[in-house]
Design goal:
By secondary structure, the protein is an alpha+beta fold. The protein is built from 3 helices and 8 strands. The longest helix has 14 residues, at 73-86. The protein is elongated.
């Protein structure tokens, strides 16, 4: 185990808050778009859309799934678009997504991957 910490600075956090039961499909679409993985957890939302909507009296479920995906900045827009489309976020009450820049991030990076990138910079 090395004492050296490798810090990544070219990354963002994509957060999507979607209707309960939609997260698995959204994560699959994000992975196909290049995401390496995701963290999903359950939440309960409250707000304007919790009331009945429109003439049909449709009620938006307060139970939500929150998806976190860390992605490189060069992949973020493509992943974000796939999330937006798959979760139908253009439909009122279906949820929201946003991107937060990460100042720095650290995790295990395999030695062969480090060598690949340090060799290409030489």
């Amino acid at each position: 185990m090395s004492d050296e910490i490798i810090v990544l600075t070219d990354a963002v956090l994509i957060t999507a808050i979607v209707q309960r039961g939609v997260a698995d499909e959204v994560v699959r679409a994000a992975r196909r778009a290049g995401a390496q993985g995701a963290t999903v957890f359950y939440a309960r939302g409250m707000g304007v859309r919790q009331r009945h909507m429109g003439v049909l009296g449709v009620t938006v479920n307060a139970e939500k799934e929150v998806i976190y995906i860390v992605a490189s900045t060069d992949q973020a827009d493509h992943i974000f678009e796939r999330i937006f489309t798959t979760a139908k976020l253009d439909t009122p009450g279906m949820g929201m997504a946003y991107i937060t820049p990460l100042e720095k991030m650290a995790t295990h990076i395999p030695a062969e991957l480090i060598e690949k990138f340090t060799d290409s910079e030489s």
